[in-house]
Amino acid sequence: MTARLAEASPRHAPPADTLGPPALRGFFRLAEAWQLRTAEQRRLLGDPPESTFYKWKREQGGSPGRDTLERISYLLGIWKSLQILFPDPAQADAWLHKPNAASLFGGHSALERMLSGNVADLYVVRQYLDAQRG
């Protein structure tokens, strides 16, 4: 009986301390590809304290909280969707900065929407791109 309960229980995600370093490395690579300023990077990560941000950037490691990991997950999903939608990596990276006529963006860029500071806006942009992929 105990074995069946263990099999039926949901698997738990690895602890944040094992996810943190690869997530942060991925984030800083995409921040470079997207040519994000430091203030934009911090905002997308949920506005961590400057000292924490620079430590993460310098060490490419650390233990960001669940909110930060969720944000990075959405951002990496956005990056992946753009790479699928636009075969030219430069075009994929540039899309984020261009004004967008879709009602979701109201003539502003996706990056402007994402910089609102709300994790929900990252989710909405990712959902939009996933829908464009089909």
For the sheet with most strands, the description reads: none
Secondary-structure-derived class: mainly alpha
Strand content bin: under 5%
Radius of gyration: 17 Å
**What's the number of structural domains?**
1
Helix content: 55-70%
Task: State the total count of DSSP E strands.
Answer: 0
Q: Identify low-pLDDT runs.
A: 1-9
Write down the overall geometry: globular
Order of helices and strands: HHHHHHHH
| Distance between the ends | 42 Å
* Total number of helices: 8
Mean pLDDT over the full residue set: 88
Write the topology of this structure.
Elements: H1 2-8, H2 16-33, H3 38-44, H4 50-59, H5 66-85, H6 89-95, H7 110-114, H8 119-133
Helix pairs in contact: 2-5, 5-6, 5-8
Features:
single chain; 134 residues; mainly alpha; 8 helices; globular; disordered N terminus
Question: How would you explain this protein's 3D organization?
Answer:
The protein is an all-alpha fold. The chain has one domain (16-133). It is built from eight helices and no strands. Helix 2 crosses helix 5, helix 5 packs across helix 6 (89-95) and helix 5 (66-85) runs parallel beside helix 8 (119-133). The radius of gyration is 17 Å and the shape is globular. The termini are far apart. The model is unreliable at 1-9 (pLDDT under 50). One of its GO terms (molecular function) is DNA binding. It holds the Pfam family Xre-like-HTH. Residues 81-134 form the Antitoxin Xre/MbcA/ParS-like toxin-binding domain. InterPro entries: Xre-like_HTH (IPR046847), Xre/MbcA/ParS-like_toxin-bd (IPR024467).
